[in-house]
Structures are given as C-alpha cells and as structure tokens.
Design goal:
Elements lengths: L8 H11 L24 H11 L4 H4 L1 H5 L10 H14 L25
C-alpha cells in the first residue's frame, strides 16, 4: 500500500528550509570585520510564493506575456525578494537587535516620506 502526499509550493519550501542547518550568532559574538553571505538561485516558485505572501502581483513578476514586452523582456523578481535575503543573512549570521517582536495579530503601519528628489 502506498500513500500519495501532495504538498503545496509553500509546504515544500517550508519542508526544505527545515532541513537546512542554520547557525545563529549572538550579538556578543560579532566582531568588526566579520562577514556573511547567502546564495540563492531564483526559481519560479520563489516569485509565486513572494507574490502571494506580499500581495505584490505586479504583472512584471507574475505574467509572462506582459513581461515579454517590458524593458527586461522576461519575468523579474520582486526587489524585496533580494531584501528578504538580506534580512535572512543578517538575522541568521550577523543578527540585528530588534526592540520588540511582531506577533500574530499585530497591525504594522509602514509610512514613507520623500525627503529628496
């Protein structure tokens, strides 16, 4: 008897992430000159997951027909996908100091102001 298990793209990503070993450093262990890097290859699933998670469904990221006619002539990653990688390397290898956590149910307001053009 065999069992068929169908995992969503998100479940597959979580399962893969849970099998990768992450070694965190605490603030006191960081010294001037330390460096860290994280290498990832962008895959279609990354764009799909990021679009769902962020709500950014700009056609430049998710619509191949639209993207053929944009200035890049192909689907491109969300800029903040790169930002998320920066966050990942900082939080796992060179940790930031956060003042408070963001918990389930918290409402976050992000406000920006143009100060120069």
């Amino acid at each position: 008897m065999s069992t068929v298990v169908c995992l969503s793209a998100l479940e597959q990503a979580v399962a893969k992430a849970n099998t990768q070993y992450i070694e965190n450093r605490i603030y006191d262990e960081i010294e001037v000159g330390n460096h860290a890097k994280l290498t990832r290859t962008l895959k279609p699933q990354d764009i799909e997951l990021f679009a769902v998670m962020s709500g950014d469904v700009n056609p430049a990221h998710v619509d191949a027909d639209y993207a053929k006619n944009n200035m890049f002539h192909d689907i491109i990653a969300h800029g903040m996908w790169g930002g998320a990688l920066i966050s990942a390397v900082l939080n796992t290898q060179l940790p930031l100091k956060f003042m408070a956590p963001i918990s389930l149910g918290d409402t976050i307001t992000v406000r920006v102001k143009v100060i120069e053009k």
